[in-house]
Amino acid sequence: MGIASVAVMLAAVIIVITNRAEVFQINSQINANLSAGASIEEGPIPTVASYDLSAHQILSHVILLIRENYVEPERIHPYEMFLAALEYIEKSVPEVLVDRSKAPEFVKISVGSVERVFDLSNMDQLWEVTMLLRDIFRFLQNQLPDPEQRQDVEYAAINGMLSRLDPHSILLKPESFAEVKTSTKGEFGGLGIVI
């Protein structure tokens, strides 16, 4: 891995949640890059086998980190972030279809033959994105029997929202984070860099 690749990895803000013994843990290097107090508090998270999408635990923590610590708050546009979240959900879960033809007033979400309309009025605060995604997650929780699909929905929604902030902010699934950690571990002589 070249120095340029390492520089890009270090410059990128990556929010990562690992599932070890059902506890939130954030990589210490990422915590060091975040401002003081900008870490996800430790607490239990569900295993994939029992994933409760309607609890939206990861989403709530990410929204809190964005609201309190994102360095360029002028880039935070709740409505655009919400639509990006829906776009990523639609791309990652084939059963989910999103009809944006009535936006910005309404959006219709279909899973198989079941559909529901969600009101998008007053989408100008970040917390409103959380509340509306919570309602959508509750709808999808009942329609998607596979717990892994439910987890994919939450990660997709978060990455969709983050994609509207900048191209470097992403949320990795625990298994992806483990790969990144393994592939970037090492020392680079002469530079004084230890990863």
Topology, pairings included?
Elements: H1 3-11, E1 14-16, E2 18-20, E3 23-25, H2 28-33, H3 57-69, H4 78-92, E4 96-99, E5 106-111, E6 114-119, H5 126-143, H6 147-163, E7 170-172, H7 174-184, E8 187-188, E9 193-194
Parallel strand pairs: 1-7
Antiparallel strand pairs: 2-3, 4-5, 5-6, 8-9
Helix pairs in contact: 4-5, 4-6, 5-6
Model description:
The chain is α+β, with helices and mostly antiparallel strands and 195 residues long. The protein has helices at residues 3-11, 28-33, 57-69, 78-92, 126-143, 147-163, 174-184; strands spanning 14-16, 18-20, 23-25, 96-99, 106-111, 114-119, 170-172, 187-188, 193-194. Strands 4-5-6 form a 3-stranded antiparallel beta sheet, with helices on one face. A hairpin with a 2-residue loop joins strand 2 (18-20) and strand 3 (23-25). Helix 4 (78-92) packs antiparallel against helix 6 (147-163) and helix 5 (126-143) packs antiparallel against helix 6 (147-163). The protein is globular, with a radius of gyration of 18 Å. The relative contact order is 0.19. The model is unreliable at 1-46 (pLDDT under 50).
Short structural summary:
This protein is 46% helix and 16% strand. The protein is of the alpha+beta class. A three-stranded antiparallel beta sheet has the order 4-5-6, covered by helices on one side. A two-stranded parallel ribbon has the order 1-7.
